[in-house]
Amino acid sequence: MLFLSAYNKLFRVVSAVGRLELLKINLRGVNMAEDVILEEIAKNMDGYSGADITNVCRLVCVQLIRHQWREFSCMIHLS
Predict the structure, then answer these.
(1) DSSP-derived pairing of the beta strands 10-12 and 2-4
(2) Beta-bridge mates of residue 2
(3) Residue 8, C-beta contacts closer than 8 angstroms, at least 6 positions apart
(4) Which of 6, 27, 42, 74 is most exposed, with the fewest beta carbons within 10 Å of its own?
């Protein structure tokens, strides 16, 4: 299935297996909680393109870094 975006670029919608593989690739080396089920996340990303999945993974990692930096900054100010 193909979608035409507002910029006239074609994006392929990724299958469930492809979404899972993209999540695994993009989150390789990321420490996740034991209760994170990538299969469930991939199932809920129906309609996402490969670029969408990559962007979601990047945003999640950036938010995690920002959160950890705030905690680290607070510890520095308190000591």
Answers:
(1) antiparallel
(2) 12
(3) none
(4) 6
Q: What is the pTM of this model?
A: 0.71
Q: What is the DSSP letter of 3?
A: E
3-state secondary structure of 2: strand
The helix/strand/coil state of 35 is coil
Task: Encode pLDDT of 57-68 as tens digits.
Answer: 999 888 888 888
Distances (CA, A) of 58 to 67, 74, 79: 14, 24, 32
Query: What pLDDT is recorded for position 77?
Result: 57
Helix (H, G, I), strand (E, B) or coil at 14: coil
Distance CA 30, CA 60 (A): 10
